[in-house]
């Protein structure tokens, strides 16, 4: 058996480690050439509250007669065995898939489930800066039937993968993933196929609600991909968590657990959060105006990320400088460049260093390899400033530095 199984799950929350459950699953089958072979979907009774009905549109009454995930296990395993699992932010859906199978008594060791991620692939093949599936589909001129509806999202994933397959070469660059997937050791299930497909499936009664688009939603829609797939995956989960502008204590801990699963420690998260806020401020400045309401919204995001008003001010200062007083276009920072900070900064040095490190820059003392010296006063007569002029090292202000950081070209991670 070969081909692709495109999956989307709607859930009670974002974190299976915090007992969140699947409330709807949509599956679309593609053959090895990207042609549709079939599909199925159903609501799932999670055995608990259904979570954010205002986002996915599923009510407690609707799932009363729906099968449990345990009921669906034979069908699910029949759907994935020998095939490549595909999802938008695949690590998210795969974590839920494995957690639900474990709750149903199917535990197995070995390697992670081989999967393809259209979030990662879209960053390479689709001209969309946004991480969201609906925006990636729009950029690829693909109709998306309904956001936060499992089958509609699974169909969109399938269409997006088919589009990408038409734009890449044959065999596709992910052939190694499909080879591992075809031989992957899923837990065995002895239920015959005719019994597996006989499970009564329950369709949702209506579409997911159309949420009012807030200012922050519009910014998120044009936020650039991060060149690191694990960071991009984490930011996708983070943006979903920010939909209701609230993170509970357990959601904060679960976000950290999600980051840990992706190989991101707490120190790295601090840099990721500060860099995300900086980029968000840069996108906000695109129209040249920042209102009080917009500043307040950015402060909400900063607070949810464990940052403060000073961090918002830092980000807005840098974004404004980058757009109103840009450094000459002939000078551009690149990952690996050495930066030296000297003297009193307007903002905490640790905040600036975290952003620089996240962008792949090296912070240290002044040497002939230093690319920039950052000082409160570029005309300073300090020892470091004199030595920088002797070495031919440019001297810029703190805001000038961050303007250059925002102008850095995205590169693939090493």
Describe the protein's topology.
Blueprint: E1 4-11, E2 22-30, E3 36-43, H1 53-56, H2 60-63, H3 69-80, E4 84-87, H4 90-103, E5 115-117, H5 118-125, H6 133-139, H7 150-167, H8 175-182, H9 193-196, H10 215-220, H11 229-241, H12 249-261, H13 266-284, H14 292-304, H15 309-324, E6 338-341, H16 349-358, E7 362-363, E8 370-374, H17 383-391, E9 395-396, H18 398-406
Parallel strand pairs: 1-4, 4-5, 6-7, 6-8, 8-9
Antiparallel strand pairs: 1-2, 2-3
Helix pairs in contact: 5-7, 6-7, 11-12, 13-14, 13-15, 13-16, 15-18
Domain Exonuclease: 3-170
Keywords: Exonuclease, Hydrolase, Nuclease
InterPro entries: BRCT_dom, BRCT_dom_sf, Ribonucl_H, RNaseH-like_sf, RNaseH_sf, TerB-like
Description:
The chain is α/β, with parallel strands linked by helices. It has three domains: 4-196, 2-Layer Sandwich (Nucleotidyltransferase, domain 5), CATH 3.30.420; 215-324, no CATH class; 338-406, BRCT domain (Rossmann fold, 3-Layer(aba) Sandwich). Helices cover 45% and strands 11% of the residues. It has 18 helices and nine strands. It has helices at 53-56, 60-63, 69-80, 90-103, 118-125, 133-139, 150-167, 175-182, 193-196, 215-220, 229-241, 249-261, 266-284, 292-304, 309-324, 349-358, 383-391, 398-406, and strands at residues 4-11, 22-30, 36-43, 84-87, 115-117, 338-341, 362-363, 370-374, 395-396. The strands form two sheets. A five-stranded mixed sheet has the order 3-2-1-4-5, with helices on both faces. A four-stranded parallel sheet has the order 7-6-8-9, with helices on both faces. Strand 6 (338-341), helix 16 (349-358) and strand 7 form a beta-alpha-beta unit. It is elongated. It starts with a strand and ends in an 8-residue tail after the last helix. The mean pLDDT is 86. Keywords: Exonuclease, Hydrolase, Nuclease. InterPro entries: BRCT_dom, BRCT_dom_sf, Ribonucl_H, RNaseH-like_sf, RNaseH_sf, TerB-like. It comes from Nocardioides fonticola.
């Amino acid at each position: 058996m070969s081909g692709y199984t495109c999956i989307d799950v709607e859930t009670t929350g974002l974190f299976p480690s915090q007992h969140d459950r699947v409330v709807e699953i949509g599956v679309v089958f593609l053959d090895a050439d990207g042609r549709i072979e079939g599909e199925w979907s159903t609501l799932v009774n999670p055995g608990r509250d259904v979570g954010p009905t205002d986002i996915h549109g599923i009510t407690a009454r609707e799932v009363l007669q729906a099968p449990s995930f345990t009921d669906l296990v034979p069908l699910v395993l029949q759907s994935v065995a020998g095939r490549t699992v595909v999802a938008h932010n695949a690590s998210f859906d795969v974590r839920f898939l494995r957690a639900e199978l474990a709750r149903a008594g199917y535990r197995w060791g070995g390697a992670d489930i081989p999967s393809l991620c259209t979030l990662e692939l879209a960053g390479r093949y689709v001209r969309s800066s946004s991480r969201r599936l609906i925006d990636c589909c729009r950029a690829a001129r693909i109709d998306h039937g309904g956001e936060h509806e499992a089958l509609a999202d699974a169909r969109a994933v399938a269409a997006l993968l088919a589009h990408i397959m038409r734009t890449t070469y044959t065999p596709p660059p992910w052939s190694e993933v499909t080879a591992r997937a075809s031989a992957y050791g899923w837990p065995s299930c002895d239920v015959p196929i005719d019994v597996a497909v006989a499970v009564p499936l329950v369709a949702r009664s209506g579409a997911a609600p159309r949420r009012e688009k807030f200012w922050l939603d519009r910014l998120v829609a044009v936020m650039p991909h991060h060149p690191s797939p694990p960071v991009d995956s984490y930011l996708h989960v983070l943006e979903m968590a920010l939909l209701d502008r609230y993170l509970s204590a357990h959601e904060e801990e679960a976000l950290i657990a999600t980051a840990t699963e992706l190989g991101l420690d707490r120190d790295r998260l601090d840099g990721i959060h500060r860099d995300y806020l900086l980029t968000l401020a840069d996108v906000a400045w695109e129209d040249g105006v920042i209102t009080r309401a917009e500043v307040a919204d950015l402060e909400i995001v900063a607070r949810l990320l464990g940052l403060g008003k000073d961090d918002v001010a830092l980000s807005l200062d840098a974004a404004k400088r980058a757009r109103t007083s840009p450094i000459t276009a002939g000078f551009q920072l690149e990952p690996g460049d050495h930066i030296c900070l000297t003297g009193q900064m307007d903002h905490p040095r640790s905040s600036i260093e975290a952003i620089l490190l996240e962008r792949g820059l090296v912070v240290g003392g002044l040497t002939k390899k230093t690319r920039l010296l950052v000082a409160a006063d570029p005309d300073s007569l300090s020892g470091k400033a004199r030595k920088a002029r002797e070495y031919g090292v440019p001297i810029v202000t703190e805001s000038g530095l961050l303007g250059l950081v925002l102008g850095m070209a995205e590169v693939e991670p090493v």
